[in-house]
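ok so I'm stuck.
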Amino acid sequence: SFCNDLKRRGWEDFIREKTGLLLDAYFSASKIRWILDNLPEIRRKAEKGEVICGTIDSWLIWKLTGGKIHLTDYTNASRTMLFNIHKLTWDSELLELFKIPASMLPSVKASGEIYGYTASHSPLNPGIPIAAVLGDQQAALFGQACFDAGMLKNTYGTGCFLLLNTGEKLVSSEKLLTTIACDGSGKPTYALEGSVFIAGAAVQWLRDGLGLIKEEKDTEEAARKIEDTEGVYLVPAFAGLGAPYWDPLARGAILGINRGTRKEQIIRAALESIAYQVRDVIEAMKKEAKIKVEKLRVDG
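replied:
not stuck anymore, here's the structure
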């Protein structure tokens, strides 16, 4: 793939230093490059300034304003792998590396500004101000009022997404993502992000894969029947391991079982595996940011 080719050519550290992101096809840059490489007509129009692209928020703003405004915010721009999080601008060297015309990209503003107003033919009433734009996890950080450095939130779902506000301090990390969040007034600030791939999905696996429970809520009753797992551990690397290991080839394992192991031990080990993974990310955040974390705020 194009990303693997860039890795072989030694661009990984260069991209991480500028964007705070790992070089991965998950982010927008390589997707835009693929479209331009494989659809020659789009490439021709893009180079003439006749084609634009952006993240989902910029598409929504474009639609809501009747095609008048092409904007995004710092938090979403920082997830494209084209945005310089030091200078808070699209990076000319990255655009050249990915062969993406700058004219395609939206202008970038702080999260808490007026972006425009709904048009008369939008799905909403006309004249409504569009006054806030954030990426999903940054929005959760804001919603949990984590406005100051050292405040941390975790969103529990199929996976887990932890964000630590580092304030004005940009922390470069090889184990975590560095991203842009916003403070209480909607102005940009920095954060560290760590993703756990399998959290609630482990409980789904207990239900659908092993048939140990009928409903998710059954896990609590089973876990409370025993004091501990009696040495049973579950590594839920069903899709590799995310932060802070980033090992796509890791595979799941159940360790410590014996003939006396019951389903309650396995169920409790699955729940504890979520906590262990979250702790791994938090410890990595504390070590790399050198910030004291007082509280973990949660949602999901």
